[in-house]
Write a structure and sequence with these properties.
Number of strands: 6
Helix content: 40-55%
CATH architecture: 3-Layer(aba) Sandwich
Strand content: 15-25%
CATH superfamily: Thiamin diphosphate (ThDP)-binding fold, Pyr/PP domains
Distance between the termini: 11 Å
CATH topology: Rossmann fold
Radius of gyration: 14 Å
Structural class: alpha/beta
Shape: globular
Strand order of the largest sheet: 2-1-3-4-6-5
Order of helices and strands: HEHEHEHEHEHE
């Protein structure tokens, strides 16, 4: 399991310097660490967070948005009509709720289709694992800088330490 402070530091080490998003239990440890470092600006909705990230990028920041995967549906229009077509990159830190058909019913559909959903939107994605974390962060940084579009890093339950054991 990756400690939340190590996860956040890894993002900061690749240059991420603006964080926003909407809470999720899988991401709770990450958000708590961001708040402790005073680098997190909460958003009410995921599309709002995506817009804030675009503004931060235009101001010279390297932004990340934290959200659960249901938030991808909420943020679809902002991602496509702002970030993708105007090359406003952001790193999407997305909890993979409903992966493998295990979770509350409201998470199962998006959990099943999330990779294909992002493939359809032409947003590159990768799933973080403890074993490949170094390569995963390197891939995120290189893809963000090279492609200049949103890039997603999926976080599955138990890979990054949460607030509760």
């Amino acid at each position: 399991m990756i400690e939340s402070d190590v996860f956040v530091q890894s993002l900061q080490d690749i240059g991420v310097n603006f964080f926003t998003g909407v809470p999720d239990s899988i991401l709770g440890g990450i958000i708590a660490e961001l708040m402790e470092r005073r680098v997190y600006t909460p958003a009410v909705r995921e599309d709002e967070a995506v817009g804030m990230a675009a503004g931060a990028y235009m101001a010279g920041k390297m932004p990340a948005v934290v959200m659960q995967n249901s938030g991808l549906g909420t943020s679809l229009n902002a991602l496509i009509s702002l970030n993708v077509i105007y090359r406003q990159p952001c790193i999407l830190i997305v909890s993979w709720r409903g992966q493998g058909g295990k979770d509350a019913p409201e998470h199962l559909v998006m959990g099943e289709v999330m990779p294909q959903f992002l493939d359809t939107m032409k947003i590159p994605h990768r799933t973080l694992t403890e074993k490949t974390a170094g390569d995963d962060f390197k891939w995120v940084a290189e893809t963000f800088k090279k492609r200049q579009i949103p890039v997603a890093l999926f976080i599955t339950k138990g890979v990054v330490k949460g607030l509760h054991p």
